[in-house]
Specification:
The chain has 5 helices and 12 strands. β8 and β9 form a beta hairpin. The relative contact order is 0.16.
């Protein structure tokens, strides 16, 4: 990590930042530099590490593909743009109707993968991918964007309005 910091302006890693037996990146950053924070209250993506090594910013994303994508879009992308001298504009979600019901924990933001369709009345509806899991790459490939569920929400009822962010806007 110190060698990477000597040759680069930003270090971005994927995997190894959680608490499993093979997760050594967090400890490596703590050993080689400084860890500013670890874990954020989002799903998928809570095991994320940010810090610096010899003054070079470091970000460690989760290893699961969906969690890595979500944390890159919401955290790493802004860091890369800032380091390049650009401004990261906040995303503006589209209001759509939920064509699903969903329960979640309060206190964390969640991102559900979804497709968009037209309802019988012509309104746009978000159809949630049928399976959960940050390791399901198919959940990104077979959907069109993310439904953003705020920290305060605990229940989404079918027919409720939700915030949808198309992948085309996120990248």
């Amino acid at each position: 990590m110190r060698q990477a910091a000597a040759r680069h302006d930003f270090i971005l890693a994927s995997g190894g930042v959680s608490t499993g037996e093979a997760d050594h990146v967090k400890a490596g950053v703590e050993n080689a530099g400084m860890l500013a924070f670890w874990r954020v209250a989002i799903k998928p993506g809570w095991p994320i590490a940010m810090g610096s090594i010899n003054g070079v910013p470091f970000m460690g994303l989760p290893g699961n593909p969906v969690a890595s994508f979500v944390t890159f879009v919401y955290l790493a992308r802004a860091a890369v743009l800032a380091l390049a001298g650009a401004v990261s504009e906040p995303f503006t979600p589209m209001p759509v109707r939920a064509a699903f019901a969903y329960r979640k924990k309060a206190g964390r933001r969640e991102y559900a993968r979804a497709k968009i369709r037209r309802g019988a009345d012509g309104a746009l509806e978000a159809v949630k991918f049928p399976r959960e899991g940050a390791g399901l790459l198919s959940s990104l490939i077979e959907t069109e964007g993310l439904v953003e569920l705020p920290e305060t929400a605990t229940l989404v009822e079918s027919g409720a309005m939700v915030a949808f962010l198309p992948y085309s806007v996120l990248l």
